[in-house]
TrEMBL record:
Entry-linked InterPro entries: GmhA/DiaA, Phosphoheptose_Isoase, SIS_dom, SIS_dom_sf, SIS_GmhA/DiaA_subfam
Secreted recorded as keyword: no
Superkingdom: Bacteria
Source species: Methylobacillus rhizosphaerae
SUPFAM superfamilies linked to this entry: SIS domain (SSF53697)
Name by which UniProt lists this protein: Phosphoheptose isomerase
Gene (name only): gmhA
GO annotations of cellular component type: cytoplasm
Amino acid sequence: MSAVDLLKHAVAEHQAVIAALEPLLPKVAAVAEAMRTCLANGGKILLFGNGGSAADSQHIAAEIVGRYKKERRGLPAIALTTDTSILTSVGNDYGFDFIFSRQVEALCTPADLVVGFSTSGNSRNVVLGIEKAREIGAVTVGMTGGNGGKLAALCDHTLIMPTSDTPRIQEAHILVGHSLCDLIEAD
Ligand SMILES: O=C(CO)[C@@H](O)[C@H](O)[C@H](O)[C@H](O)COP(=O)(O)O
Ligand SMILES: [Zn+2]
């Protein structure tokens, strides 16, 4: 395949996934409402995931703490993917599976909303982080794809992107993530 054909293929796949998001939009709106309620009641938003999903967690946390499009007060959100001392000590002392659940245990309250990004829905550290958030009584949101994996059965809200292709799922996640920020900022 030529480079241009490969790019055309990626664009076509991307467009098909984005077009197929329509039926998911009421669920996205419900997550936005849960986020607005959480923030209005003094809660915070915690986010985590691996690899590209770690980057997505940081990206969305930055939009919430800083701003997406609108001038407004800073709102509380923390990506649990950024502190290398915590990630290495918990990873080293307890295991990589616990890098998010330990931070959820330390930081999460019942007023909070916790977002786990996993394209497979099965990454053990993400699943354990969501389980810990449930135990605490926070609202849980799974951002996933394919069949939703283990997250689908665990979360209060699961947003399953309509593809099993990891990069295409991630691209849809960021569109949904930006849209959530837009709705958080709406009057
Ligand atoms: O960005 C990509 C692939 O597009 C990778 O870094 C990807 O995020 C990593 O392989 C993750 O470990 C995949 O985990 P998950 O999405 O299944 O939870
Ligand atoms: Zn990626």
